[in-house]
Amino acid sequence: MRFRLTPRETSFYDxxxxxxxxIVTGSKLLMELxxxxxxxRGEIAERMRAAEHAGDDATHxxxxxxxxxxxxxxxxxDIYSLASSLDDIMDFMEEAVDLVVLxxxxxxxxxxxxxxxxxxxxxxxxxxxxxxxxxxDNLTEYWIEINRLENQADQIHRKLLAxxxxxxxxxxxxxxxxxxVDVLEEAAxxxxxxxxxxxxxxxxxx
Length: 206
Hints:
By secondary structure, the protein is mainly α. It has 6 helices and no strands. It starts with 10 loop residues before the first helix and ends with a helix. The relative contact order is 0.16. This is DUF47 domain-containing protein.
């Protein structure tokens, strides 16, 4: 690791860790959604909205710290990119839950459970990785595994689309369900954006 002669603002590490922990909370709410009946989904959506607002607060705190810090632990643009991508994950997860409730979806198609399981695993890995930004240790396996999970998510998404267009659903239902599975796919992409940013930071800091 490159030796530094200047002190660095360390609160960023804690804020990134908090943001990632909040994403784990969001992924658990997605898992809850799978087994919930229609009345219970509204309450889950309320908790997801609260988690998304907490994520917004965490992101704003990072931006505020970035704007007020003379010295940062790594490049400012990478801090901004990492914070924004973490925030995107929560936004997409919250949107997916909200759409399920707004569209009054009675039964999610087979394969959505696999999408959510991938997101839950990615959330755990991301939360485990964020504290390692302090030392840049043990991060290579993280971004490799996240990229593998994103590839897996792509395959699940393609199969879901084929299922939705199989003729089993009417046109309106296809539009509703496609929007939900597309948003879940965007969440998987956002996890990969986080991992790619972490890789960029690690390369610069090596």
